[in-house]
Write a structure and sequence with these properties.
mainly alpha; 2 domains; flat
Length: 88
C-alpha cells in the first residue's frame, strides 16, 4: 500500500459530520462527471489546491494500469460501489 501525503487544510476534512462529508464528495463527483478535467480545476480552486496543467502520468500509463487489476478485483470494486450507492 502506498501512503500519500495530504494537506490538513482540505475543506472536506473540516466537515462537522460524516453526512456533510459525503455530501461534499457527492458534489465533487457530480462536478467531475459533468466537467471532467475542468471540473477538477474547479474542485482544486474550491479546496485551495494549486491548479494542474497536466497529469503526472501519461494516457498510456493509465491505459496499461487497467491490466494490473484482475477482472475479479474490478467486479469486487463495482459491487462495493453499487452497495455504497444503494445505502443512500
Amino acid at each position: 500500500m502506498k501512503f500519500l501525503k495530504s494537506s490538513n487544510d482540505i475543506h472536506w476534512r473540516n466537515q462537522s459530520s460524516q453526512k456533510d462529508a459525503i455530501t461534499v464528495v457527492k458534489n465533487f463527483d457530480a462536478i467531475l462527471q459533468q466537467d471532467s478535467f475542468e471540473g477538477l480545476k474547479k474542485i482544486n480552486k474550491a479546496l485551495g489546491i494549486k491548479n494542474l496543467n497536466y497529469l503526472k502520468v501519461t494516457k498510456d500509463e493509465i491505459c496499461k494500469s487497467e491490466s494490473l487489476v484482475s477482472d475479479e478485483d474490478k467486479i469486487a470494486l463495482y459491487e462495493a460501489i453499487k452497495k455504497y450507492y444503494l445505502c443512500f
